[in-house]
Amino acid sequence: MSRTTGTVVLDAHDEDGQGSIPIGSETAEESASARLFTAQHDGQVDHVDLCGRRQSDTAPLHVRIMETPGGVPGGATIMDETIPASSIAPGPANAWFSVRASTVGRLAAGTTYALVVSATSGTAREFPRWGANQNEPIEQLLCFRGRWSRQLMNGAFRIWVETD
Length: 164
Description:
mainly beta; 6-stranded antiparallel sheet; 8-stranded antiparallel sheet; Jelly Rolls
């Protein structure tokens, strides 16, 4: 499937990323953080903006958008990209960076998805940090450490969709 020539619009977002949470865990074989969101438009994912920072020379960052059967990531994958650590600005402050979708995945308006972010190697002090709002938690962030659990904070993100 090829890209259309529609208009790219901001679909879902939470832009308060003053705090931060680590992406990854040196004690878990697989670990991830996921932010639930509801698509506002039908269309193809163009790119995702994340707010965060690199702690040191970290492993690549894996970014996916997935369906959420049962309220947790685990359904079909809409976007699946890996970016090098060098694409993320070093700390101490958070900064926005983009992850472009190389495959054409579609979102359906009114459907809940998960933006899943993971890093798979390093020590806790080396993992990238995801900008998070800890002041107004809405329990839309899930963390995976063997199983998904809700966290009282929100990961900052922007999802950009090319509408038809």
